[in-house]
Amino acid sequence: MNSPLNLFEEQIHIHFKDQKLLENVFIHRSFLNENKELHLHSNEKLEFLGDSVLSLITSMYLYKLYPLLQEGDYTDIKAAIVRTESLAEVGKDLHLGEFLFLSKGEENSNGRENINLLADCFEALVAAIFIDHGFDKAYEFVLTYLFSTRLDFIVKNKLYLSPKSRLQEIVQAKHKILPLYRTIDEQGPEHHKVFNVSVYIHDKLVGNGTGTSKKQAEEHAAKNALENMQ
Question: 23, 47, 106, 123: which is the annotated catalytic residue?
Answer without folding.
Answer: 123
